[in-house]
Structure formats: C-alpha cells, structure tokens
Specification:
Chain B: One of its GO terms (molecular function) is potassium ion transmembrane transporter activity. Chain B: It comes from Neotamlana laminarinivorans. Chain B: This is Trk system potassium uptake protein TrkA. The complex is a heterodimer of chains A (about 500) and B (about 450). With about 500 residues, chain A is mainly alpha-helical. Helices cover about 65% and strands about 0% of the residues of chain A. A two-stranded antiparallel sheet of chain A has the order 2-3. Chain A is globular. Chain A starts with a helix and ends with a helix. Chain B is built from 16 helices and 23 strands. In chain B, the strands form five sheets. Chain B has a six-stranded parallel β-sheet, sandwiched between helices. In chain B, strand 11, helix 10 and strand 12 form a beta-alpha-beta unit. The model of chain B has no long low-confidence stretch (mean pLDDT about 80). Classes of the chains: A mainly alpha (about 500), B alpha/beta (about 450). The interface between A and B is medium-sized, with 12 and 16 residues.
Chain lengths: ~500, ~450
Amino acid sequence: MKLNYKIIFYFLGSLLLFNGAFMLLSTLISFLYKDGVTGQLSLAGITTLFLGVIVMFFTKNHIKEMNKREGYIVVTFGWIIMSLSGSLPYIFTDSIPNFTNAFFETMSGYTTTGASILNDIEAVPKGVLFWRSLTHWIGGMGIIVLAIAILPLLGIGGMQLFAAEAPGPSADKLHPRITDTAKRLWLIYFGYTAAETLFLSLAGMSFFDAINHALCTLSTGGFSTKNASVAYWNDQPIIQYIIILFMFLAGTNFVLSYFAFKGKIQKALRDEELRLYFKFILIFTIIASVIIYFKADLTESSINHPMVWGKAESVFRHALFQIISVITTTGFVSADYTLWTPFLMVFFFGIMFLGGSAGSTSGGVKVVRHLILIKNGFLEFKRALHPNAIIPVRYNKKAIEGGIVFNILGFFILYMLSFIIGALVFSMFGIDYKSAIGLAASTLGNVGPALGDFGPVNNYAAIPLLGQWWASFLMLIGRLELFTVLILLTPFFWRNR
Amino acid sequence: MKIIIAGAGEVGFHLAKLLSYESQEITLIDVDKDSLAYADTHLDIKVIRGDSTSRAILKDAQVENSDLFIAVTSSETTNITACVLAKQLGSDKTIARITNTEFIRHKEELGFTKFGIDELISPESLAASEIELSLKQSSFTDAYEFEEGALKMARIVLSRSALFVGKTVKEAAKIFPEIHFVPIAIQRFGAQYTIIPRGDTKFQKGDTVVFITTENGGEELCRLTGKANRDIKNVMVLGGSKIGFKTARDLAEKGFNVKLFVENKERAFDIADDLPKVLVIHSDGRNVQLLDEENISDMDAFIAVGENSETNIMSCLVAKSKDVKKTVALVENMDYFELSQSVGIETLINKKLLAANNIFRYIRKGEVVAMTKLNNMNAELLEFEVKASSEICNKYIKKLDFPRSAIIGGVIRDGIGQIALGDFKIREGDRVVVCSLLQSIKGVEKLFR
C-alpha cells in the first residue's frame, strides 16, 4: 500500500495556514495593548502562513482520498506541526529563547495540559500571553473534532460509544455530516468562551485576564496570566465560582450541551456519564471539604488565603475548585492540595486518572470508560455464576457490544502501562519517585500540576531538557488517546500489505 | 355467508373446519396441491389452487361477492397484500394474520383500516397471553376468563385425592350446597370423545373435567380437587422465537424471575439488550446439565416455546423429571396434543389453533361475545348476549328445550358471575356461557338469536 503523502502534506499545510491566522490575531492584541512585540509576532504569523502556503501550493494536485493510515498520520503530525510552528512566537519575541522550552510550552498548550516552564509569567508581553492561551483554545477545537469525527472512525478505546457520528450503540446523531456537527460544537465552545469572558469581566477581572482565563477554562488547559494562577483572585470568591462553573461545563460532553440548547434538556440530564461525573465531583468535594476543615490548615501555604466569606466557605470553595480542576484536567490552582494531608495528596493523585466526560476537551481516562469498566467488573461476578448467560454491559440503557468493552479494557491497560513507563523514564532523569509518578500521571492526563517538586505552586522549569521532550511525548499520546500515536510506532503500520 | 380463506396451512385448515360445521360457503386458496387436496377430501368446501395475491385467482374465487376474506398464510406480506387486493375487488371485510405486533398496537396510526384491513391477528401474541394466563391459574391445566374474570373456565385432571371421584354430579352437588362451580365437559382418561355431564354422570379418577367457576370459586375448586394453587415466581422459558420473547417480556414486566434460553447468539444479545430484567442464556436448552446449572429444579414453571414441537415436549419432560410443577409446551403438530397431555405436560399451546379460534370469534361477533375451543376436546365454550328477541329470554333454564349435547355453565348479570341451575330465569342483557359440542352449536345459536 502506498501512503498518499500529498494529501497528508496538504492537510498539514492548511493547519499551518490556520495557525498563522491565529497568530495574527494575537498580533492584534499585542498592537492594542502596545506591549512592544507586535513586529516579532507578525513575523511569526507571516512565516507560518508563508510556510503553509508553500506546502499547500506544492501539494495542491493531490488525490482526494484518505484512508485510516493517512488519518492517523495527519492527526499525530498535525499536533506536532502545530506545536513546532506555535513555538515561533515565543522564540521570535525572546519570551522563551530555548527551542526545547518553547516547544514544551506550545505542546503543553495544544494538548491543553497547562504545564508551564515560565518562571515569571507576568513579565511576558501580553500578545505572547494571549498566544499562549490561544494554543489551549485551538487545541480544544482540535480535540472536539477529533472526538466526534476521527477517533470513532478509527475505533479507538471505545470512542465509538459516545461519538455523535458513530454508527452502533449510541445513535445520538447530531447531524449527518461531520463538518456540520463540528461547526455546531465549535459554536457552543465559542459561546461558552464568550459567556465566561463576559461574566469574568463583570465580576471585576480586567478584560485581558478575563478572555485569557476563558480561553484556558473551556479548553480545560490551565495556563494563567498570573504567576499565582487563579489563587491571585482568592479574595474574590465570585470570580472563582464562575471559573468553577465553566470548568465543570468544559468537562461535560459538548453534544449534551447541544441537546440542551435544542430544548432536549431531559435527554441531556439523563446521560449516565454526566450523572456519574456530577456524582464524582459531589462526593469527592464533600470528602475533601470535611478532611480539610478538620485536619488541614489552608493558610499553611505559600498561597495567600484571605477567607473573605469565612473559613467554611473558603474550605468548600478550594476543595471544589481543586477537585473540578483536576478531574476536568484543567489544572488551575487556587490552593496547594499537596500540603493538605497525606491522604488528600494520594487522593488527588488518584483523580488525575479520572478525566472529564468523553466529547469534552478534558484529558485523562474519561468518566465513561471508568463507568463501563466498573459495570463490567460487577457483571463478571454474575457471569461467573451463569457461564452461558448473555449479560451485556448497559450504557444509557443500551447494551454495548463485547468488542467495545475489550477496546476500553485495552485502552485502560495501555494507559496504565504508559503511566508506569512514563514514571520510570522521568526517574531516570534524577527526579524523585513522588515527583516522577506525579509528572507521569499529570502529563499523560493533560492535567498540569503534579506532585512533589512539580506541585501546584511550582512549575516544570526544573525538568531537564531531555525530560521536557519526554513530557511533551506523554502529553501528546495522552491527548490523542494513546492509540493514534502509538500505532505509528508499530512495524505493521508501515509495512506494505 | 361467503368466506374466502387464503392459506391452507394449519390455521387455514382448522378455520375452514370450524366454519364448515356451520355450513358456511367457504373457498380455500393455496398454492400447495397436497394441503388443498387434503382439505378438499376432508371438508365440505371449495378449493382453488393459486396465488392469493393474484387478481385472476381472487376473481376466480368470486371475491366481489364475498362477505369475508381471511388471509392466514405464513407470510405476513402476502396476507397484507391479499387483504388489500380483496378489499379493492369488493370483499366486505378482511382479516390478516400478521407477525409484527407493532401493527396491532398502532393499528389506527398505521391506517390499516384505511387501506382495507379490518382486523389483524397475531398468533404469536395470542400464544404469549395464553401462556401468561395459564401461569396465573397454575393448578389448572387450562384456563379462560369471561368478562375480565367474572366467570372462569378451569380445566382439571382429577387425581385420586379429589373429593368427588366416584360420585355423580348430583351427589357431588349435595355435598357442597354452596356451589360456586359447575362441570360443563368431561373427557374420560384415554377416550377420544367429550361428554357433556348430566346429573347422573359419574366423576372418575383421571377424568379431565372442565368447570365454570365464579370469581372466587377457583380456590374452592382447587381445595376440593386436592390441588393447591401455587404461587409462581421463577420461570424458565425456552426458545428465542417471537413467542419466547413476548412471553419473557410480559412475565418479566409482571415481576416474575425469568430465565430465557436462546439458541442463536446474536439473537440472544439483541434480546438481552431489549429485556434488561430477563437473564438471557445462550444455549439451545437441550443440554440437561446446563439446565441443572441454571437450577431448573427451583423453577416453578417451565415454558418450552422453541421452533420444534418435539424438542418442546422432550424438554418439558426433562423439566417434569426435575420436579417442575407447571410445564407449558408449544406444540404445532396437532397429533401430538393428546399424547403430550397424557405424558403429563400440563398446558399445550398451539398458536394456529389460537389464531383460528380468534378469527372464528370475530366472525360470530354480534351474537357470540366470546368463545374458546377446549383444547383436545371437540367442544366450544361460547358466551352469548341475551337480546329481548331471543327465544331464551325470560325463561327458566329447566323449561328450555336446550340441546342434549350442550350445557349452560353460568350467567353474568351486571358484571357479576353466577352459576345458573334449573331454577334460574334468564333476562335480557344477561351474558350466558354455554359449552357445546360442535354439532349443537347451531342449535344453541338459534336459541339466542
């Protein structure tokens, strides 16, 4: 079999064009705020556009035919090419002079991880900070289209289940055509972002901070324009509650939002994954709140906790904020959860593996996979009693085929394996075990803050350069649901039929 | 009345037989030569060989003059097409046998009456509801309800412990002055014919007796015949056919614990998807060891409704040997009927017979409110409504010239069932349940006209 290289390059070229256009948008911000890097940003944008045009020009007579293999390559290399070109603004403006650092920061952006190597965020020009937030937002757009269009097609890890367009068990078809579906979901994504910007501005944030935090919330990214992240607004609970609400929304399936806006609110609320996602957050918040209230002291931290509405509210808010932030893999920081109690540290480490809902912008294993694995686990007991009985796992009242359960089991095992290998490699760079397992879980799940040396109040600048490449790799495979990237590393992918 | 029946299968044949007793003018259409020849030699009817969806054949059968067109071939689409054509060509009323029960449930929405089909009959759903009824009356081998249970028909095989074995009907009545039930038909053990009991008829051990009871008479009857009405909770259903599916679904909805054996794996998965409350097991049910593993001996009832009559009978016998008290078998082959009952399978279901009876009931609409055939007996149970013009109206039963081979079982007056003996005066608006041998049905009908 011959790969259709031309169409692959054509697609990558169009991505560059798209990326360049967004860079010019941040140039506009730079110009409006007169941060002095407008010229460098325009140069980065024009370079990217120019590269894109060249690549597209040379491949414009491609054959319009794409198979699964080209699909895998386009997705993986699409993310890589975006990160490569996306690091140009950092390098051109000298905000991050080192290429490895810049690439890591961009990859962390596009994979909506939110881990940063910037020591002094507030010193970075506004245009570049806006670009940094935009990488999250663009990454989020990519994930939406990935989740509804590409992953189901490739049949990865049970993604067929919740994909709007997938044939099979879930027939919640939004619209017969993928591009139309993508546009509808993007509109919701855009709408939520605009709404959050508005709310945050009304609550007293500056417009620049509001739009940046909105971009980073809806993409479940976690970059902030402040060194202290969202903890900067610890004296303004309303701002934090607004961010909590939108983090929660960003962790739900956007298809459900679409149903809700179409008036089918009942249908959206009946979704099993949404219910479990909500229950997880509720129960975990109660557990964490109680423990923090009685056993921990919020003020024993480098983060300032003014407690403007009293201790109980403050404890509840920070517990809720951190739980949602980690479950949705956003990674905003309002408090340092690693200092609370040893139990809560392990607890937060554990929920890094949960992830938000499928069809959202969050990373991690995803609630639906846990749901099906738990159900399947229980049914195994029943199956042991009735070896010949057909006992299917039910999701949203429909039985799902055994093959999908296997897909999900396979995904889960591969995820755990990647986590273990990821932690091992990190420890080879001399990182202590706690930090290493934290880093592996955090990068693989696209969370952001990890444990130990790389906890919520630290950043990733201390990771050696080689380690940053490894972290970039883990972020990429975690973001693209493992299989999409890892399949490129298998020999039979490249073997001719 | 001129009736055309399309399809000379078992439903068609049985229907033609029932109707021909009434000397109706019947034409039977089928493509199969042998079954037509069989019907031609056994029944007094006219037969036409050909496709019932062909215009020429329908014209040949003089469909334009017919009062009723009944399509009961095994193909649903053929039946629907034939009925539509017949209606267009001038038949008064049409009845189609279908398999998709959705059609019955949404008859109006789908507009069946509009395009010319007056009645839809689904043997599968009839069988499913028959099975459900038989579980409700678990101690009876056969049961039927009139007017939502105001009067019930119950069929019992007399064991030695039954109190009235060896007594005549009159003697039995003396022992139990408060009568809530009356025998209406008896079949002696091993005999082929049915007796309509008179005062001097003696009950014998092994008799199959059909009683009519009032609403609460059922329990009393159970006690007197030495049978306890067991509560049924755990049910095993064999066969993933439409009947099996419907039975399992209905029973599970009523709160029974249902285990359903399905042979085809894909079908099993689909059923497991549709029926979350039913435990679906992928097996053909002939594997006795597997039946044991699934605790067949703890089952209260075993229902075999697979494709194959022989398998159904055999697996019911397996269930019997494992002490399952109530067994129900779907038996398509009419010749097995008698045999199956004598080897101890309590209830037999024949969906074709059910369909034929149901259609017969429809034909008699007006005079006969409800009717059922007594399985394996050549007698019918009929429910009539008494009109002012009826000969029977305002008369005492003992003064009636009632045919010898028929008997009044009970009367439903204002929704309350009563056992009617000689001193009972029948009034207008009463609903009378009569048991009659086939040859007397016409005579009985005359009394109610």
